[in-house]
Amino acid sequence: MNDDRTIFDSILSGEIPCHRVYEDDHVLAFLDIGPLSRGHVLVIPKERAAYMHELSDESAAGIGRVLPRLCRAVMKATGCEHYNLLQNNGAPAHQAVFHVHMHIIPKFNDGSGLGLKWSPGQLGDGETLASAIADAIE
Predict the structure, then answer these.
(1) Is 103 a catalytic residue?
(2) Catalytic site residue from 26, 40, 99, 101
(3) What are 29-70's pLDDT values in tens digits?
């Protein structure tokens, strides 16, 4: 993680206000100020890490524990039946703020929400690749 402060550091410190929806010792969740749809929520760890692979197990578990509850709350509050969870790592993967964050993006029939183009490829070396990933787990 580099030492450059992000807007999320300023939100966590209280320098910049936000519309909080949830907070505990490890996590802060608030409304996105540039929402893709009504009820778009950002979920950030209080731990400073730019990428998911840099995040501690404790902070990752904190996010994982609260995500289902936040998704249910967004659904109940907005009336949406569908949503996307999105987490980007690195500029080529469309990360704009270099502090780990999850998006909960409600999807409505009016076309608002996240739009995706999915271009599946072919799995050619599944056994070898699965073995290599499994072996790399710390």
Answers:
(1) no
(2) 101
(3) 999 999 999 999 999 999 999 999 999 999 999 999 999 999
